[in-house]
């Protein structure tokens, strides 16, 4: 059997959830020798042995077969989705007789919500599968946004791929803006995820009457703010709330720097954000295309200032963003406190769900 787990960019409570799940499997007679724990890296960097211990716990890493998914490794073809996405899924996963995915359900900047079948696509899918699902037209679709599942082409593609994969069960947790566990959802993947998303939409929605001059937010803290690449999620929250021509201030640790070489290369192309959008559309499929596209799109709407010690100012400027040593300095660069600015502070970043005025 195969248990899919999130990598270290997700706050999924793996060291808490996984031992309980594995004990339940042992109690029904499934030996640890017959279990593969597959890390859903998607196109992320594989986790090192130390990362695996931090993410899963030393006892699990030393007692079970733990494998990083390789999007260029051994894959099995399941044909194509109705949108033409070629479905290549991890061989270990497809050949398992029982398939379980754990993970975090949280608003997602183009798939609507994380969790559910997203552990499969992109989590344990082939490179071409992921790139097609994250294609320019799919990401640009008006419903490919935070908290939207209905008519969202990326989500519907993910569901179709997940159903074909044969995933039997999901064990998904939810957290609040302070990353306290609030819910545990267990069951058949499609219906359970849909019900979980409805509950989270109720819990996490933040309504506001008009757009803001300045949005101050984060990427939700560790581990989602490990690198600048992941921080596009926080910027996308700001994009929903900021006025055209306004400013998004994002505070993030970025202990791993930019994180993705292709992301940095494309965001450094040309003089304007529109140059980046034109380039990635012309070159697709492009690694990291979704994050590149969403950040460049946000930059056509508003200025982005990142408060961090993890990325050098000159790199930030080359990537068309501002840099500041502190949130206070960033606010002063916007004219605060002299100017009358409508400012909102969103400490939870991607762990909240802004509902824009109609």
Provide a descriptive summary of the structure in words.
The protein has a six-stranded mixed β-sheet, sandwiched between helices. The protein has a five-stranded parallel β-sheet with strand order 15-14-13-12-16. A hairpin with a 5-residue loop joins strand 4 (75-80) and strand 5. By secondary structure, it is α/β, with parallel strands linked by helices. It has helices at residues 14-27, 49-56, 58-63, 91-94, 127-133, 136-140, 153-165, 189-204, 232-241, 261-267, 273-283, 289-301, 313-318, 327-333, and strands spanning 2-6, 36-40, 65-68, 75-80, 86-90, 99-104, 107-108, 112-113, 169-175, 181-187, 205-207, 212-218, 242-251, 303-307, 322-324, 343-346, 353-355. It is 35% helix and 23% strand.
Question: Which CATH architecture of the largest domain would you pick?
Answer: 3-Layer(aba) Sandwich
Question: How confident overall, as mean pLDDT?
Answer: 95
Counting DSSP H or I runs of 4 or more residues, the number of helices is 14
Largest sheet: 6 strands, mixed
Segments where pLDDT lies below 50 for 5+ residues?
none
Tell me the domain tally: 2
Strand order of the largest sheet: 3-2-1-6-9-10
Using the CA coordinates, give the radius of gyration.
20 Å
**How much strand?**
15-25%
Q: What is the 3D form? A: globular
Highest-level CATH class of the largest domain? Alpha Beta
Number of strands: 17
Supply the CATH superfamily name of the largest domain.
LarA, N-terminal domain
Helix content: 25-40%
Structural class: alpha/beta
CATH topology of the largest domain: Rossmann fold
Cα distance, first to last residue? Answer: 47 Å
């Amino acid at each position: 059997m195969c248990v899919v787990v999130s990598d270290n960019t997700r706050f999924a409570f793996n060291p808490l959830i996984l031992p309980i799940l594995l004990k339940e499997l042992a109690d029904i007679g499934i030996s640890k020798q017959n279990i593969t724990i597959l890390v859903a890296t998607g196109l992320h960097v594989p986790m090192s042995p130390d990362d695996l211990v931090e993410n899963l716990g030393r006892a699990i890493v030393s007692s079970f077969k733990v494998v990083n998914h390789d999007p260029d490794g051994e894959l099995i073809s399941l044909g194509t989705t109705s949108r033409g996405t070629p479905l290549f899924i991890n061989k270990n996963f497809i050949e398992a007789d029982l398939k379980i995915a754990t993970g975090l359900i949280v608003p997602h900047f183009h798939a609507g919500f994380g969790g559910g079948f997203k552990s499969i696509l992109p989590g344990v899918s082939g490179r071409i599968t992921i790139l097609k699902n994250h294609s320019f037209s799919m990401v640009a679709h008006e419903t490919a946004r935070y908290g939207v599942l209905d008519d969202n082409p990326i989500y519907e593609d993910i569901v179709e791929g997940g159903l074909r994969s044969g995933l039997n069960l999901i064990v998904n947790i939810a957290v609040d803006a302070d990353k306290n566990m609030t819910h545990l959802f267990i069951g058949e993947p499609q219906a359970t995820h849909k019900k979980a998303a409805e509950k989270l939409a109720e819990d996490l929605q933040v309504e506001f009457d008009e757009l803001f001059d300045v949005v101050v937010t984060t990427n939700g803290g560790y581990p989602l703010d490990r690198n600048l690449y992941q921080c596009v999620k926080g910027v996308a929250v700001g994009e929903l709330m900021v006025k055209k021509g306004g400013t998004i201030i994002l505070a993030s640790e970025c202990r791993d720097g930019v994180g993705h070489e292709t992301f940095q290369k494309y965001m450094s192309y040309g003089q304007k954000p529109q140059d980046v959008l034109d380039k990635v559309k012309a070159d697709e499929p492009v690694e990291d295309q979704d994050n590149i596209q969403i950040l460049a799109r946000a930059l056509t709407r508003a200025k982005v200032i990142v408060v961090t010690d993890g990325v050098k100012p000159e790199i930030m400027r080359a990537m068309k963003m501002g840099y500041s040593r502190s949130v206070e300095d960033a606010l002063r660069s916007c004219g605060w406190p002299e100017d009358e600015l409508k400012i909102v502070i969103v400490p939870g970043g991607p762990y909240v769900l802004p509902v824009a005025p109609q």
